[in-house]
Amino acid sequence: MKKLTLEEILSKKIQDSYEVQYQYVLHLIEEGIIKPVKSSPKNGKKPSLHTMYWVTEEKPDYGAEEEELLYHTDTRIKPDYYLRHPDVYVQERAYVRRLNSFLQNNSDSLNAPVSRNERSFAIWGEEKFLSGGSGRTILGHCGIEEELLNCYSTAEPFAYYAAHRDTPQKILIIENKDPFFGMRKHLLAGNEKILGVPVRTLIYGAGKRVVSSFKEFVISAEPYMKEKGNEFLYFGDLDYEGIGIYERLVRSVGGSFEIRPFIPAYQAMLDKCRDISLLPPTKEKQNRNISDMFLSYFNKDTAARMKCILEKDLYIPQEILNITDY
Hints:
Layout: E1 2-5, H1 6-9, H2 18-30, E2 34-36, E3 52-55, H3 63-71, H4 80-84, H5 86-105, E4 114-115, H6 116-124, H7 133-141, E5 151-152, E6 159-162, E7 170-174, H8 177-188, E8 199-204, H9 209-215, H10 217-220, E9 231-235, H11 240-252, E10 259-261, H12 263-271, H13 300-311
Parallel strand pairs: 4-5, 7-8, 7-9, 9-10
Antiparallel strand pairs: 1-3, 2-3, 6-8
Helix pairs in contact: 9-11
């Protein structure tokens, strides 16, 4: 029910005589379409009419939409939500029907994984639809998990240098740009070892970005990098942030392969700063929520020295080492 004024009700009869208007209102009352608001004043004419009326709104008929959902929709699309909320289906129908058409006519293409944007364009003709909130909402209302669409996210590709691609080999992930270039230059000069370790591939992690890059490692990495015999090492700043990046990186690969700290590099960092009072203070607003995962790879004395530096709010940047140390 909603309220309308007498003027609104008579808007289509404005050119008619008052007698015609009066009979029109009486007809609507007799049909049960409107009901006078008894507390509203009269219009002052003879015969008089109330100036406000309750109007019964027609309940929409969603029979056609329900039939479409139940009998003309791919079974992988679950109709439950839309049957409970047919008004939402009316609003989202165009997107649901495009998804339905794709599932019914192009299911074979789901056998090959493609990027999220590519899959989104193939289904809806909008490359960013699936990565946006609207696309996720449609899938949720359809009861479909994104895994069904067999697509992957595309992180920024990581930069790397391969001295050679023989396997198995040691692959070193480096947090910052300067040590990456220094070590690359060291290998390009014909050296086969970095701090006594035969490293064959360097990957530039670019700080926190390495975590998102490695989520898609299985898809984006060269085949030789994914050989099971390879050993992955990590080298970053000796501070809460650097250790936190390492721990998040390890969790992001989900046990697909082990990533160990590059112990000789961290040891060389410690050896080069015997006087910790000369170290810089820890950068502000670092997340100090780290576990014992990183320190567990080092012997007790080395781990204790590292903890001492962290607890004194100091840190050792990777840049303490340079090409003359490698």
